[in-house]
């Protein structure tokens, strides 16, 4: 994490706050006629909408604008953010003047703000609210336009970005459901102005008498405040404005429309992991937004995503079935807006462009999305940048992997990070898990089906090799598989320090020695434990968690990722209420399923406790997790078979130590310096930790089928 940066907002004093005033960022917000370095303008407000808006909403608008502006002004420290160095996460400390000091300083408000924004942008947030001494009215941020008519009382505020998903949502609301809506658009760049106006005109023509009211939002900053392109906090500003407009209209909800595959944020590959992958409508963020607005409003308020269970291809079908297929070409999905030209409205290589191309093909609507609108055709043209090649290949790889999974247990074992969303979805954990699995399975089928369709269309050009050799279709066809990541990865510069799984073997390289990594075989469990420790240097972790392999791996698939119970040596004495001695089957299938569900809940609870700094709760969670691991590993034998209680328990710690020692001994045969480094740097008892004397950066991400 970077060193703390102070953002001093408005006329707040920095005296006695900052240790290094030269690093402070001063932000002053003004309305359309002000002199600040940030200007907030909410355009096309109808005079009938303006009513008494609680001052908490006024404060919220300003806080959100400051957060959004600081997000762009303070660059993430590492240029190579794919490696997630310390510079990726920023430590941002805001000093903000507010009208309702007691409200914003309350523990509940502060905790909800920090937790939601921290997850949204992958940064650490601190807020020091101070009393505002120079108040001004909300009208300073409003530009009125009564030429737009409010046809009856609006029923819903809908956030409208102009992308495919938000277009599908607007069409669903206006044409399918016949609802009267207000569309709120954040216009982040003047490049999109004409396209937004064109989209508004086309929608109005389709809607006739039910034409929506449009409200545009702009945030202008001085040139010196544009340094960071990721802008992950944008949706906080977007949501705050939408909620304020809803309050003006006497409404109690705001709707975002985004397909569930994007919302749930299961990364397609390392290039879009963590904060780089959009979390705009992630269920945890949506819940956090809803809690914030409910607190600000003083009453229940709803933030919804009605498309949470749709794929992007499903969204395209919503558009085409409503007779609006001609609007697809006018929508804007690309995240690289700086590359946009009149000829090429999409780059073709970013994750959003790739997802869009596959979706329109899967929905049989690609005739409405011309390939020449893309700077690069992801299917048939050469992909020059290494990142673009990896992105497209990894997108296909994930689809191929998910399609091969047969049940939800395999899905969670393969993508443990998806478990974080279950508690924020409706229904039980088991029901949510099944729905998420079904969604991703459907998406995987759409992606692979779209690829098969395009290979079929271009088979002559593929066979005659008139397409570029590194285009996606030829790469896939000539490899005989959708899996094309290894061919790309081999061209990358090899990191100096590697400890990762490639296919079914482990490979290692230390301090840049040798042209090729050494291969480690026969010690899979020990290598897996070492890999997990190297991924989190300096972090002391319960041996029980390390044994799990990856968070819930042992719980979801004990036969594959944990210690084989028969390998655990004598002496393990943790009891979970099961009597010693041969008392029959330890736990039936239903009990094991309950253990798994509880473990998933604990993983999410632990994330929240870590974010809140609640060390007492963390300790309680770790103890319960260890007990659950003991219960399941004690209940299942090799192959996942139910086993009976033995008179003596086995010792997990000894088995962990033995597995690691065996792996290091094997490594010593091929790379003595690496073996000695691991022996010196890995400590284990109740807690295991990798703590080298000198910091070492390791590449630990697996190469699938390499």
Structure keywords:
Rossmann-like_a/b/a_fold; globular; 4-stranded parallel β-sheet; 706 residues; QueC; alpha/beta; 8-stranded mixed β-sheet; 24 helices; ligase; 20 strands; queuosine biosynthesis
Q: How would you describe what is shown here?
A:
- The protein is of the alpha/beta class and 706 residues long.
- Among the domains are: 4-141, no CATH class; 346-492, no CATH class; 498-690, no CATH class.
- It is built from 24 helices and 20 strands.
- Strands 3, 4, 7, 8, 9, 10, 11 and 12 form an 8-stranded mixed β-sheet that branches. The chain has a 4-stranded parallel β-sheet with strand order 2-1-5-6. Strands 13-14-15 form a 3-stranded antiparallel β-sheet, covered by helices on one side.
- The model is unreliable at 78-86, 269-276, 481-492, 548-587 and 642-650 (pLDDT under 50).
In short:
This protein has 706 residues and is of the alpha/beta class. 42% of the residues lie in helices and 13% in strands. The longest helix has 29 residues, at 429-457.
Summarize the main sheet.
8 strands, mixed
Low-confidence stretches: 78-86, 269-276, 481-492, 548-587, 642-650
Radius of gyration: 27 Å
* Discrete helix count: 24
Intertermini distance: 32 Å
Helix-strand makeup class:
alpha/beta
What is the number of strand segments?
20
The coarse overall form would be globular
Keywords: Ligase, Queuosine biosynthesis
Organism: Hydrogenophaga defluvii
EC number: 6.3.4.20
InterPro entries: QueC, Rossmann-like_a/b/a_fold
Summarize the helices and strands and which ones pair or pack.
Blueprint: E1 4-9, E2 25-27, E3 29-30, E4 38-45, H1 55-73, E5 91-98, H2 101-105, H3 107-121, E6 124-131, E7 142-144, E8 156-159, H4 164-176, E9 181-186, H5 193-207, E10 213-221, H6 234-248, E11 253-255, H7 260-264, H8 283-297, E12 302-304, H9 312-321, H10 351-362, H11 386-404, H12 408-414, H13 429-457, H14 459-463, H15 472-479, H16 485-489, E13 498-502, E14 505-509, E15 518-520, H17 524-535, E16 541-542, H18 543-547, H19 553-556, H20 558-561, E17 569-570, H21 589-612, H22 615-635, E18 650-651, H23 652-668, H24 672-681, E19 682-684, E20 687-690
Parallel strand pairs: 1-2, 1-5, 3-4, 4-7, 5-6, 8-9, 8-11, 9-10, 11-12
Antiparallel strand pairs: 4-10, 13-14, 14-15, 16-20, 17-18, 19-20
Helix pairs in contact: 1-6, 3-8, 4-9, 9-10, 10-13, 11-13, 17-23, 21-22, 23-24
Keywords: Ligase, Queuosine biosynthesis
EC number: 6.3.4.20
InterPro entries: QueC, Rossmann-like_a/b/a_fold
């Amino acid at each position: 994490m970077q060193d703390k940066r102070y953002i001093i907002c408005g006329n707040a004093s920095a005296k006695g706050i900052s240790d290094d005033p030269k690093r402070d960022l001063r932000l002053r917000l003004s309305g359309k006629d002000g002199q600040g370095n940030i200007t907030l303008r909410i355009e096309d407000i109808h005079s009938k909408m303006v009513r008494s808006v609680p001052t908490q909403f006024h404060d919220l608008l300003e806080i959100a604008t400051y957060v959004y502006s600081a997000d762009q002004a303070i660059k993430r420290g590492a240029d190579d953010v794919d490696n997630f160095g310390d510079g990726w996460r920023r430590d941002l400390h805001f000093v903000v003047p507010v009208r309702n000091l007691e409200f914003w300083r309350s523990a509940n408000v502060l905790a909800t703000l920090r937790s939601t924004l921290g997850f949204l942008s992958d940064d650490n947030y601190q807020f020091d609210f101070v009393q505002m001494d120079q108040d001004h009215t909300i009208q300073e941020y409003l530009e009125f336009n009564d030429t737009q008519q409010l046809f009856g009382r609006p029923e819903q505020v809908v956030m409208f970005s102009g992308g495919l998903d938000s277009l599908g949502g607007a069409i669903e609301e206006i044409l399918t459901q016949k609802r009267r809506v207000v569309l709120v658009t954040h216009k982040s760049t003047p490049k999109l102005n004409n396209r937004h106006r064109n989209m508004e005109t086309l929608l109005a023509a389709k809607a006739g008498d039910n034409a929506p009211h449009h409200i545009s939002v702009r945030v202008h900053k001085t040139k010196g405040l544009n340094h960071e392109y990721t802008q992950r906090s944008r949706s906080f500003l977007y949501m705050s404005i939408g909620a304020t407009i809803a309050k003006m209209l006497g409404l109690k909800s705001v709707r975002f429309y985004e397909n569930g595959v994007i919302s749930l944020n299961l990364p397609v590959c390392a290039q879009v992991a963590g904060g780089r992958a959009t979390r705009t409508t992630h269920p945890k963020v949506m819940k956090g937004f809803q809690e914030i607005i409910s607190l600000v409003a003083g009453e229940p308020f709803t933030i919804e995503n009605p498309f949470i269970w749709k794929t992007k291809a499903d969204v395209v079908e919503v558009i085409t079935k409503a007779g609006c297929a001609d609007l697809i070409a006018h929508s804007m999905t690309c995240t690289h807006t700086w590359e946009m030209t009149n000829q090429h409205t999409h780059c073709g290589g970013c994750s959003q462009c790739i997802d869009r191309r596959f979706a329109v093909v899967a929905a049989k609507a690609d005739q409405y999305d011309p390939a020449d609108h893309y700077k690069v055709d992801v299917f048939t043209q050469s992909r020059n940048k290494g990142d673009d090649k990896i992105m497209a290949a990894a997108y296909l790889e994930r689809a191929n992997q998910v399609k091969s999974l047969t049940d939800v247990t395999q899905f969670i074992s393969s993508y443990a990070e998806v478990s974080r969303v279950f508690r924020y979805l409706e229904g039980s954990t088991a029901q949510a898990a099944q729905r998420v699995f079904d969604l991703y399975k459907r998406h995987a089928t759409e992606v692979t089906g779209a690829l098969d369709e395009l290979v079929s269309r271009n088979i002559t050009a593929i066979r005659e090799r008139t397409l570029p050799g590194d285009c996606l279709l030829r790469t896939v066809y000539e490899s005989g598989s959708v899996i094309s990541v290894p061919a790309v990865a081999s061209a990358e510069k090899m990191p100096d320090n590697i400890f990762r799984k490639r296919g079914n073997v482990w490979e290692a390289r230390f301090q840049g020695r040798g042209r090729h990594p050494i291969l480690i075989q026969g010690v899979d469990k020990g290598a897996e434990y070492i890999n997990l420790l190297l991924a989190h240097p300096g972090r002391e972790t319960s041996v029980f968690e390390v044994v799990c392999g990856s968070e819930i791996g042992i719980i979801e698939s004990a036969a594959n990722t944990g210690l084989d119970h028969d390998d655990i040596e004598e002496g393990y004495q943790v009891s979970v209420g099961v009597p010693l001695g041969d008392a029959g089957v330890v736990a039936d299938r239903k009990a094991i399923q309950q253990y798994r569900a509880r473990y998933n809940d604990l993983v999410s609870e632990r994330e929240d406790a870590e974010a809140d700094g609640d060390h007492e709760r963390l300790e309680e969670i770790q103890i319960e997790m260890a007990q659950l691991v003991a219960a399941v590993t004690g209940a299942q034998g090799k192959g996942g078979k139910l086993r009976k209680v033995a008179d003596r328990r086995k010792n997990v710690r000894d088995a962990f130590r033995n597995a690691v020692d065996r792996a290091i001994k094997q490594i010593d045969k091929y790379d003595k310096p690496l073996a000695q480094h691991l022996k010196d740097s890995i400590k284990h008892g109740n807690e295991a930790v990798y703590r080298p004397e000198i910091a070492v950066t390791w590449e630990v991400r697996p190469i699938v089928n390499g």
